[in-house]
Amino acid sequence: MCITELKVSKVNALKAHRSADKDGKLLLENLYGKEVFQNQDVRDRIKTFEDALTETGRPNVPDFSDVPEDMRAYFVAQYKMSVIAEALNEGWTPDWDNGNERKWIAWFIMSPSAFAFYDSCYDDSDALAGSGSRLCFKSEALAIYCAKQFLDIWKDIQLR
To answer: HSE-up of 53 (CA within 13 Å, CB side)?
Structure first.
């Protein structure tokens, strides 16, 4: 009898657990231990753009070499934030046909001395100017976290 060792990364086990049905979750918890899957708040997993790449499986930033040089920083930041929002939303996508679904966005203030997170707000069916439909979140907590954790990327989107 030949025994083969199967190795599964923690990242892949966590992804499988999030998308599994009740029986699948139970199977994974029995294999790896329930504690591996407890307290898996997305804000604990996604601290950097690299974490978001790992979570989503998206490729790293395209080079945007065909975009005029003075516009590249904006497109790089827009790509990064789209990947980060996808990771933080954990598969949720806004339903723009559902006027009752809240879609949270981060709101920033700009002054001569600073660019800063100001507030979060939601809209049921509209994307406010500058927010973009890809850059909304399923909860107020995620919108606030993203605005504060990734302020430099937001700054490149808003000011470049």
So the answer is: 9
Q: Are 29 and 102 members of one domain?
A: no
| Rg, the chain, Cα only | 19
E strands, 44-138, in order: 103-111, 114-123
Is 109 domain-assigned?
yes
Q: Which amino acid is at 123?
A: D
Do 35 and 62 lie in one domain? The reply is no
Dist. CA 58–CA 65, nearest whole Å:
19
**120 has which bridge partners?**
106
Residues 6+ apart with CB under 8 A from 150: 49, 80, 81, 84
> What Cα–Cα distance (Å) separates residue 33 from each residue in 15, 23, 26, 27, 38?
15, 15, 10, 10, 10
pLDDT tens, 39-84? 678 999 899 999 999 888 899 999 999 999 999 999 999 999 999 9
Q: Quick check: 127 and 106 in contact, CB under 8 A?
A: no
